[in-house]
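Researcher: Following up on the earlier apo prediction. This time include the ligand. It's zinc ion, with the SMILES given after the sequence.
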Amino acid sequence: MTLDIQVCSRARLSRDPRFDGKFFIGVRSTRIYCRSICPVPTVKEKNVRYFPTAAAAAEAGFRPCLRCRPECSPGTPAWLGTSNTVSRALRLIGESGLEDHGMEGLAERLGVGSRHLRRLFIQHLGAPPSVVAHTRRLHFAKRLIDESKLPMTMVALASGFGSVRRFNAAIRKTYNRTPTQIRRLMHQKTIQPENHYFFRLRYRPPYHWKAMLAFLAARAAPGVEAVDQQSYRRTISVNGCHGYLQISPDEGHDAFVVRVQIADPHSLYTIIERIRRMFDLNADWAAIAQSLGTDPDLSRSVGAEPGLRVPGCWNGFELATRAILGQGITVKGATALAGRLARSFGQRFSDANALTHLFPTPEILADAQLTGVGLTKKRAETIRLLARAVCDGQISFERIVDSDALLAQLREIPGIGPWTAQYVAMRALGEPDAFPSGDLGLLRALGLKTSCELEKRAEAWRPWRAYASMYLWSAVKE
Ligand SMILES: [Zn+2]
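Model: Understood. Below is the ligand-bound prediction.
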């Protein structure tokens, strides 16, 4: 990726939050790297170097700034010019909870040679895959040191270091301080209940939270999800450990406050990555608006609704089940059905605060009598078949490399048509170019008759077809 130095320079001097995380600034004299919004007095242009990612700055021997905390910047945008492979590799690194499967394994999974993958990473991110993964691990560890009261042994494990010794060595090497010394710097004041973790997750403004919340509110399965004026909550289950999450805006800070309750902190990294994807926090909306805002069918709504995101999902199986439930009925009817499904087949979670159940697992739904909750025989069968395919390992919603292959697998299940499959891919994989070309709402919005015509029309919106769909849907609603 070639950075436009003039753009970087302007963004740096104005501390423009829209560029936060899109590049990092290395100060030559101090060998420290900063976010574009760093409050430290600006240095002369000739004394700085620009890096496309934090990993690139680390690779060049710079240390993260303790003031602006590069680990807190919004993530790298999901779309990196032309490289799908790099975007997918980043998703895999995020999903795997940072276990060290080795870069050979990563390359194999992506169907490319490891040398080629390394070249692509250096070209687009400025650092090889191992440094990108290590930097992420380190950044997550730094956040746990600063923002949680977890014992350092747990921080080491939760951030994927494998051993406390490796963790201590990496932190010392990067920060010139021990983990305990770093924690002392933060002067944590808030007292957090046991098993509760708070994170502040940044995004690049603008973010249309109202639209995101309205979308989720209309589909919130009673008992599993709850939405109020400002926040979204839901029950979660990761590696057999149950808990819940809550997200609400951190007013005036281009960030959300996320609260996670979970007994086992091992999965925190995976949970936070999933939340980032669910709420599309890495999106570079300014770039999307620049591209879609000139389209005659989109310009008005792009102008009227800045910061619209593509809602992702917590769990791909749950989303696919919900999409099947919704076939041919209203969103309201499907949401009520999902609530009944959860009450009948989901594990009981709590009696407090409206989150009473976990969404049922594929293992339970594979053999459940689903017609009892009001599903037609046909839909009940489709859900059972999907659940069985997931249990048998024929379909997996994790570690997906090839979205077309997932689409094809989904469509092999009787009762899952192209629309359902495309809709699931759009929300479960977070690919900005995913597109439900058979959608009636989209056809209506554009006055077109066939999905073929729609696909042709949508060529102009690449690589942002998922965002174009969101804008068209929101325009239809008006
Ligand atoms: Zn800084």
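Model: The first strand starts at residue 24 and ends at 27.
Researcher: Noted. I'll compare it with the apo version next.
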